[in-house]
From TrEMBL:
<dbReference type="Pfam" id="PF22341">
    <property type="entry name" value="GSPE_N1E"/>
</dbReference>
<protein>
    <submittedName>
        <fullName>General secretory pathway protein E</fullName>
    </submittedName>
</protein>
<dbReference type="InterPro" id="IPR037257">
    <property type="entry name" value="T2SS_E_N_sf"/>
</dbReference>
<dbReference type="InterPro" id="IPR054757">
    <property type="entry name" value="GSPE_N1E"/>
</dbReference>
<feature type="domain" description="Type II secretion system protein E N1E">
    <location>
        <begin position="5"/>
        <end position="59"/>
    </location>
</feature>
Length: 59
């Protein structure tokens, strides 16, 4: 199963799907990301999210 989050969405909202597994998606989350963006990623990938918070400078 493949999934690619649009670059503009990832940049603007501070969320990036790093990997998809059978049971969850690994998501990098910028420290200022809005929870609604995470809800949209969850809806789009159709899997539970495992989050890793990253500083804005590293995102």
């Amino acid at each position: 199963m493949g999934f690619e989050l649009p670059y503009g969405f990832a940049r603007d909202h501070g969320v990036l799907v790093a990997a998809l597994g059978a049971e969850h998606a690994e998501v990098l989350v910028r420290e200022d990301a809005h929870p609604q963006a995470l809800a949209e990623v969850r809806r789009s990938v159709g899997l539970p999210l495992r989050l890793q918070r990253v500083p804005r400078a590293l995102f």
